[in-house]
Design brief:
The complex is a heterodimer of chains A (108) and B (115). Chain A has 108 residues and is an all-beta fold. Helix content of chain A is 0%, strand content 44%. In chain A, strands 2, 5, 6, 9, 10 and 11 form a 6-stranded mixed β-sheet that branches. A 3-stranded antiparallel β-sheet of chain A has the order 3-8-7, with no helix packed on it. In chain A, strands 1-4 form a two-stranded antiparallel ribbon. The chains are: A mainly beta (108), B mainly beta (115). At the A-B interface, β5, β6, β9 and β10 of A face β4, β5 and β10 of B.
């Protein structure tokens, strides 16, 4: 069975500092990976997906199959980035498995 | 703010009673999902359905039941057999798998408290 691991439950950085939210996965097939974000008092929503290779709100994530990782990065954190971030993997059966989540706090 | 609607927002029940959580979507999505969100444990999949009249168990299906009689609706029943029912429940939907990567659209959730 697949597994998604986010080793940090809480990540605290200062505004303007680089941020990296770690995500590691285990899956025998070809993974489809996503990052979801939940801002305070808002619903969980998609941030980005690996196949699109896009940058959303300054965030990027690269799939590293050798290291089985999909870390989320942003060079300069902003206070409005404070939120709960979830890494997720979709398997061939369309089942989506989420990591435990990382709460990002960006301090002024 | 259409899309996917969960009701009610807060639900209180006494132990031993079954309770049904509603989830409706008007996105014409084929797939629907139920997750449970607990502090420190992220989201865990309870049940999912890829098509009407069909559904599969997720990682923590014990004590729960679902039905998918209509494309728009995927109600979740928390039965008295669920040992720790107090939690935040999230419903989600997605397009047919394989199309445009089919990201999930989430509802606002239902917080269930069982005493």
């Amino acid at each position: 069975a697949q597994r998604v691991t986010q080793p940090e439950k809480l990540l605290s950085v200062f505004k303007g500092a680089p941020v990296e939210l770690k995500c590691n996965y285990s899956y025998s097939g070809s993974p489809e990976l996503f990052w979801y974000v939940q801002y305070s008092r808002q619903r969980l929503q998609l941030l980005l997906r690996h196949i699109s290779r896009e940058s959303i709100k300054g965030f990027t994530a690269d799939l590293n199959k050798g290291e089985t990782s999909f870390h989320l990065k942003k060079p300069f954190a902003q206070e409005e980035d404070s939120a709960m971030y979830y890494c997720a993997l979709r398997d061939a059966g369309n089942m989506l498995t989420f990591g435990g989540g990382t709460r990002l706090m960006v301090k002024p | 703010d259409g899309g996917i609607t969960q009701s009610p927002k807060y639900l209180f029940r006494k132990e031993g009673q079954n309770v049904t959580l509603s989830c409706e979507q008007n996105l014409n999505h084929d797939a629907m999902y139920w997750y449970r969100q607990d502090p420190g444990q992220g989201l865990r999949l309870i049940y999912y359905s890829q098509i009407v009249n069909d559904f599969q168990k997720g990682d923590i299906a014990e004590g729960y039941s679902v039905s998918r009689e209509k494309k728009e609706s995927f109600p979740l029943t928390v039965t008295s057999a669920q040992k720790n029912p107090t939690a935040f429940y999230l419903c989600a939907s997605s397009k047919t798998p394989g199309t445009d990567n089919s990201p999930l659209h989430f509802g606002n959730g239902t917080r269930l408290t069982v005493t």
